[in-house]
């Protein structure tokens, strides 16, 4: 396993969302910055009561510099609306702030590649700082990678989906929001058997999370 320097040394002295986003643009805590177009930091109100955490930015997010603006983001918007949650009241971010990808054979298309455990660990200080600033009442982990970054490294969605969980001790301190885990919106997009059922399950989990506020 590759050992990375990590993001800790890039954190600003002043912890607010603008300072964090500005500092994160220069992060070299792991190697993902080399191929990605830019850092994609979180977005949303600093006093959001609900925080959604995904895995990493995708192709569209990397090009536009905003989280959840591609196909998965549009499906997330639809799911939030169906769950009765206004998107502009929610803080959305990712466990990893740079896009990791492979090139399609013989082409320019960039194909999502799951970040490594070392890259997730290297990026964790940004996520800790976001939690410290926003201090949400409820955190939703969108997918297994987010849950393993926030709750426990061996997290299994099939076991813990539907439960009210706690953050890993590293994140808590004086912060102890309720945590729930659900599928990533991209999983609903990729569902081959019943995409509608996958989407409906995402809506139910988001509605349950909103009900914890």
From TrEMBL:
Question: Which CDD domains does the record associate with it?
Answer: UDG-F4_TTUDGA_SPO1dp_like
Give every Uracil-DNA glycosylase-like domain span.
41-207
According to the lineage, what is the superkingdom?
Answer: Bacteria
Keywords from the UniProt entry: 4Fe-4S, DNA damage, DNA repair, Hydrolase, Iron, Iron-sulfur, Metal-binding
Q: Which InterPro entries does the annotation name?
A: UDG_Type-4/5, Ura-DNA_glyco_family4, Uracil-DNA_glycosylase-like, Uracil-DNA_glycosylase-like_sf
A Pfam family annotated for this chain is UDG
Q: Sorted alphabetically, which NCBIfam families does this protein's record hold?
A: UDG_fam4, UDG_fam_dom
Task: Tell me which family the UniProt entry assigns to this protein.
Answer: Belongs to the uracil-DNA glycosylase (UDG) superfamily. Type 4 (UDGa) family.
Name this protein carries in UniProt? Type-4 uracil-DNA glycosylase
């Amino acid at each position: 396993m590759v050992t990375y320097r990590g993001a800790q040394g890039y954190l600003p002295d002043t912890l607010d969302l603008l300072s964090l986003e500005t500092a994160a643009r220069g992060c070299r805590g792991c190697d993902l910055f080399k191929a990605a177009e830019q850092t994609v930091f979180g977005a949303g109100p600093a006093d959001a009561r609900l925080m959604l955490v995904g895995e990493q930015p995708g192709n569209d997010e990397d090009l536009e510099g905003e989280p959840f603006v591609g196909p998965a983001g549009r499906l997330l918007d639809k799911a939030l609306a169906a769950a009765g949650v206004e998107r502009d009241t929610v803080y959305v971010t990712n466990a990893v702030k740079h896009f990791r990808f492979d090139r399609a054979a013989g082409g320019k298309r960039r194909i999502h590649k799951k970040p490594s455990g070392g890259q997730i660990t290297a990026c964790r200080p940004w996520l800790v700082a976001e939690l410290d600033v926003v201090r949400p009442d409820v955190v939703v982990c969108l997918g297994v990678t987010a849950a393993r970054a926030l709750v426990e490294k061996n997290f299994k969605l099939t076991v813990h989906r539907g439960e009210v969980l706690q953050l890993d001790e590293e994140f808590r301190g004086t912060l102890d929001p309720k945590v729930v885990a659900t599928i990533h919106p991209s999983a609903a997009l990729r569902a081959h058997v019943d995409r509608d059922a996958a989407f409906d399950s995402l809506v139910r989990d988001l509605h349950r999370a909103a009900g914890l506020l």
